[in-house]
Amino acid sequence: MAASLVTGLVLALFAVLQAPYNALTSLIGVAVFIMYFRKFDRKGLRITFVVFSILYYLMSVFMIAVYQYIPAQSEMG
Question: TM segments (predicted)?
């Protein structure tokens, strides 16, 4: 679960950050992915890892969008 969380957060940061930093987050995500797939050989664990990584990615992107939107609203009103 921790590897899925880290991968999801890194993918969300990849979507948000600018050019030189998103390359670093991409490399971190690939490294976690490779380490997980080397450690666990069962297909079920790998599918679960990918599914939870996608879910954590979606939740992280949503929370980042909310975080960026709320301060803009408080300044306007």
Answer: 12-37, 49-70
For 29-46, what is each residue's pLDDT tens digit?
999 999 999 999 999 999
**How far, CA to CA in Å, does 36 sit from each of 23, 40, 70, 77?**
20, 6, 36, 47
How is 7-65 classified by DSSP, letter by letter? HHHHHHHHHHS-HHHHHHHHHHHHHHHHHHHHH---HHHHHHHHHHHHHHHHHHHHHHH
Distances (CA, A) of 62 to 16, 31, 38: 11, 24, 30
This prediction has a pTM of 0.83
